[in-house]
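User: Sequence recovery, please. Input:
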């Protein structure tokens, strides 16, 4: 199998085609970022035209190389490449760049446009996603590759800009990648020296090469417009299998534009008709808007013919590998398709049946059972595994030189942890989870949001979920965090009250294949919740269910989540002694509860009956259920340093205090 060699002249022609597709689309939209595609086109074509392995007819082929455009504002670069290299993205779609209903949104969106590997835009996230993909690829390769055939031998390529490397997440992710020696990761850094405000020297004078060398990367510096230098550097990076590689490619933003090259004016605004005409003349481009020379189409088609032969050869080898390795083949199917065992729910419940304790500890017990049932489950903690109970017992750690394990050590890098988890989920094969204290969810919130935006199955394990953390004080006591996480569309936030709810929370997370889940878990011990015999596991999975109720119509319905469910039950017993009939409803997951039919919710929360919600945090997220006339009992200020039981007394969340507040609310 041979591909016809691409000459420097041909490569320049193809790069210019990318430049002008990008320029024309931005101009037609009167919106967008032409500068990066114009500057990075030479590097991008050299990569796609000579190195990147893919099949546009099977865009989810597991062994394809991944291309991550971390500098997502340059989206027309990617859309142009997808069009030229045979993906189902027509010129008409490029002509509708940034328009309603098009497949060419302003920033690339995973699941929206074929060939887009990840939703990028927030700078640096894509870089860290690439690290996660490389970790997943290493882990998959160690599970499946044999001496006779390697089902997994792909490379992760990331195109980053100045902004990606200025964002702090890139420091965290680069450090982890260097530590793990991810030799399957190559970053091309489009070093054009320009940001929105002007030259990067306004705020940046860092030795990027020195930084990455110190982090354990293989570093090269090249002229990003010299085809020979680019291809030589990518070949050297691909050959370096012991270290991740960064190619620092010096480029000119808006390359070829007589008036706007090397200026911030080209970063985020169209060039304008006159400047486009001047650029066409300057680069000798004699074609009209959206016109692609046949020679360019032929060069790309020749590359595709070669790649299709590579794909066919892999498929043939894979079929033989399957026959020769039935156990690995079965594991492959389990990990890539992630079927749920028919007895999943019962098995998870059995891990904690009848046990009291902190839900973080109960979660750790459920995790062991889940990991035994789901080989795709892998994850770890941001240096808090003993507190988060997030290790898979008996499994090895993923570390330098060994990727067969399932326990990841993210280090004290919550921001990168979330993005790495997203990268692993995007790669496929794994259901990643990551743990830290709930108060530190602030550090990974951008990645949590992107998990939801991309509908990725990742599991966030957030422990130490309230001011009951106690003596560590207000810096470590989450107050607003649960309410804040509930604001993210598509994020399933579950705050379980005991072992049964914790087991079913993990069950819900494993079943929630089209979005992320956040498990909100207590530090302090909790009792087993006493439920009526009519309560079923299915009711719990509805996000809200009846825990206890008197016969007949109640005088008040009290809702609670997590550690406040038993408080609500105890308060209800105290109120019963005063002749007040109380219905207690546990609501571990507001999102699931609100998704139930109105009739189900009305059955639990009858119209005209006063409603109360109890939760050790801020109460905004309960407004949809409480309405204007309901009562929220929680905390609307920061915590303090003292034992948890003292804080409960001081903040009015003991059972007697809750009972008194409900009685006053009812005028009793």
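Assistant: Recovered sequence (668 residues):
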């Amino acid at each position: 199998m041979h591909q016809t060699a691409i000459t420097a002249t041909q490569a320049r022609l193809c790069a210019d085609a990318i430049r002008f597709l990008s320029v024309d689309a931005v101009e037609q939209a009167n919106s967008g970022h032409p500068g990066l595609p114009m500057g990075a086109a030479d590097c991008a074509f050299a990569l796609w035209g000579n190195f990147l392995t893919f099949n546009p007819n099977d865009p989810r082929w597991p062994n394809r190389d991944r291309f991550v455009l971390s500098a997502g504002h340059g989206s027309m670069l990617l859309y142009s490449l997808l069009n030229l290299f045979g993906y189902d993205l027509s010129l008409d779609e490029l002509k509708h760049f940034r328009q309603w209903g098009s497949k060419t949104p302003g920033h690339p969106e995973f699941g929206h446009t074929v060939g887009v590997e990840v939703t990028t835009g927030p700078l640096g996230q894509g870089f860290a996603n690439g690290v996660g993909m490389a970790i997943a690829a290493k882990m998959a390769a160690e599970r499946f590759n044999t001496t006779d055939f390697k089902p997994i031998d792909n490379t992760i390529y990331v195109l980053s800009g100045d902004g990606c490397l200025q964002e702090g997440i890139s420091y965290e992710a680069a450090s982890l990648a260097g530590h793990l020696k991810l030799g399957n990761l190559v970053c091309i850094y489009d070093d054009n020296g320009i940001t929105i405000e002007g030259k990067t020297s306004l705020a940046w004078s860092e030795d990027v090469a020195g930084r990455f060398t110190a982090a354990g990367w293989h570093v090269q510096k090249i002229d990003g417009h010299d085809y020979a230098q680019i291809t030589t550097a990518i070949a050297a990076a691909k050959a370096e299998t012991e270290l991740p590689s960064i190619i620092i490619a010096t480029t000119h933003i808006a390359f070829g534009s007589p008036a706007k090259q090397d200026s911030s004016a080209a970063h985020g605004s169209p060039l304008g008709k006159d400047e486009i005409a001047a650029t066409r003349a300057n680069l000798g481009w004699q074609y009209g808007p959206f016109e692609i020379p046949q020679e360019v189409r032929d060069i790309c088609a020749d590359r595709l013919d070669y790649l299709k032969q590579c794909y066919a050869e892999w498929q043939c080898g894979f079929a033989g590998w399957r026959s020769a390795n039935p156990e690995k083949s079965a594991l492959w199917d389990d990990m890539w398709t992630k079927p749920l065992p028919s007895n999943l729910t019962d098995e998870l419940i059995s891990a904690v049946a009848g046990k009291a304790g902190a839900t973080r500890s109960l979660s750790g017990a459920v995790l062991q059972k889940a990991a035994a049932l789901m080989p795709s489950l892998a994850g770890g903690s941001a240096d808090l595994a003993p507190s988060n109970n997030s290790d898979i017992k008996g499994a090895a750690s993923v570390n330098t030189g060994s990727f067969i394990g399932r326990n990841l050590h993210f280090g004290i890098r919550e921001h990168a942890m979330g993005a790495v988890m997203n990268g692993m989920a995007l790669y496929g094969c794994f259901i990643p989870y990551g743990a830290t204290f709930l108060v530190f969810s602030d550090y990974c919130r951008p990645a949590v949001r992107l998990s939801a935006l991309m509908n990725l199955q990742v599991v966030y394990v957030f422990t130490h979920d309230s001011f009951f953390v106690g003596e560590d004080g207000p810096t470590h006591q989450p107050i607003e965090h649960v309410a804040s996480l509930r604001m993210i569309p598509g994020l399933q936030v579950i705050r379980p009250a005991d072992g049964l709810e914790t087991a079913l929370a993990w069950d819900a997370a494993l079943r929630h294949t089209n979005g992320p889940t956040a498990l909100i878990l207590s530090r302090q011990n909790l009792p087993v919740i006493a439920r009526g015999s009519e309560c079923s596991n299915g009711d719990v999975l509805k996000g809200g269910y009846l825990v206890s109720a008197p016969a007949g119509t109640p005088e008040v319905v009290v809702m609670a989540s997590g550690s406040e469910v038993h408080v609500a039950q105890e308060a209800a017993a105290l109120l019963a002694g005063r002749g007040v009939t109380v219905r207690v409803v546990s609501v571990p997951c507001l999102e699931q509860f609100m998704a139930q039919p109105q009739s189900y919710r009305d059955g639990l929360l009858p119209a005209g009956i006063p409603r109360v919600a109890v939760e050790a945090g801020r109460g905004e997220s309960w407004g949809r259920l409480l309405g204007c006339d309901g009562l929220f009992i929680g905390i609307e200020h920061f915590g303090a340093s003292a034992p948890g039981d003292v804080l409960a007394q001081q903040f009015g969340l003991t059972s007697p205090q809750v009972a008194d507040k409900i009685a006053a609310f009812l005028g009793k």
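The chain has three domains: 8-308, 344-520, 537-666.
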